[in-house]
Design a protein that fits this description.
8 strands
């Protein structure tokens, strides 16, 4: 299970699930065409993905 946490304030987010199938979203890193990377939470059944959560104006980190 991916757990996102804010390095600034310590807030954390536990399990997020897909609204279509109910399965836990998996943490992944995708590469954009310009070479930059983006942390995302992705449905294991291919229903889509969302950008990683934000807190204190920055992306939350995931240790997975």
């Amino acid at each position: 299970m991916a757990i996102y946490s804010c390095p600034k304030c310590g807030m954390s987010i536990g399990q997020m699930t897909c609204g279509k199938c109910g399965k836990p979203l998996a943490h992944e890193i995708i590469k954009k065409p310009d070479g930059a990377t983006v942390h995302v939470s992705k449905c294991p059944d291919g229903h889509g993905m969302v950008k990683s959560p934000m807190c204190c104006g920055q992306d939350m980190a995931c240790s997975v």
